[in-house]
């Protein structure tokens, strides 16, 4: 019965994929990853596609890799913030958050990085892939109490069986998820890194937009 409930939960949660219109491919030095962008967060989808077209993700790096948490790519926080500090009149723009309760930080989701701004607005040129790990009922219960919110049953089951980073829910915008190449994402998240979480051997990636299926 528990296995059946999980399969039904995943089927329900996967329905979001059928309505999506755009996919991209991350061509990395570890292999390719295909990601379906969410139509539920259209502003982030279109912002990301615009940055791809501009070349912001050409020969980019996964430059902060934290095992069982996230693999972050694009510009680092320090790079952006130091540039702003040098010229406060040229603050990097932030992109208004699109937080959706049905989009949650399960393993394989694509999110937009940000600083600690109270509006939870995103950077234009920083992304992350969720790795995370499987959660226990006790861990999820503690998180519910800490954040004073209820985790829906279907999401809870996915966190217990697939894994993710549930404590990020409601704080960072998600705008896509992996449909092919999860093993490549796992390989990236497993690379050796230094004390600052920078990979010892660079993990390079390029992003291309895939033709829409007819």
TrEMBL record:
Q: What is this protein called?
A: Peptidyl-prolyl cis-trans isomerase B (Cyclophilin B)
User: Which terms are listed as keywords in the entry?
Assistant: Isomerase
The organism's place on the tree of life at top rank? Bacteria
User: Top EC class per UniProt?
Assistant: isomerase
Could you say which EC number(s) this protein's record lists? Answer: 5.2.1.8
Q: Which organism is the protein's source?
A: Pedobacter africanus
């Amino acid at each position: 019965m528990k296995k059946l409930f999980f399969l039904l939960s995943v089927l329900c949660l996967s329905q979001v994929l059928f309505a999506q219109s755009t996919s991209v491919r991350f061509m990395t030095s570890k292999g390719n990853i295909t990601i379906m962008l969410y139509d539920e967060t259209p502003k982030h989808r279109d912002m990301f596609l615009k940055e791809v077209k501009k070349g912001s993700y050409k020969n980019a790096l996964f430059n902060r890799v934290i095992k069982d948490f996230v693999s972050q790519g694009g510009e680092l926080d320090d790079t952006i913030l130091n540039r702003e500090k040098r010229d406060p009149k040229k603050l990097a723009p932030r992109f208004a958050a699109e937080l959706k309760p049905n989009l949650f930080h399960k393993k394989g989701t694509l999110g937009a990085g940000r600083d600690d701004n109270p509006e939870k607005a995103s950077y234009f040129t920083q992304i992350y892939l969720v790795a995370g790990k499987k959660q226990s009922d006790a861990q999820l219960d503690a998180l519910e109490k800490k954040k004073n919110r209820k985790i829906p049953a279907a999401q809870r089951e996915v966190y217990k069986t697939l894994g993710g980073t549930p404590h990020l829910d409601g704080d960072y915008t998600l705008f896509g998820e992996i449909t092919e190449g999860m093993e490549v994402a796992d390989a990236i998240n497993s690379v050796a890194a230094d004390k600052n979480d920078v990979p010892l051997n660079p993990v390079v990636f390029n992003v291309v937009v895939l033709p829409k299926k007819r």
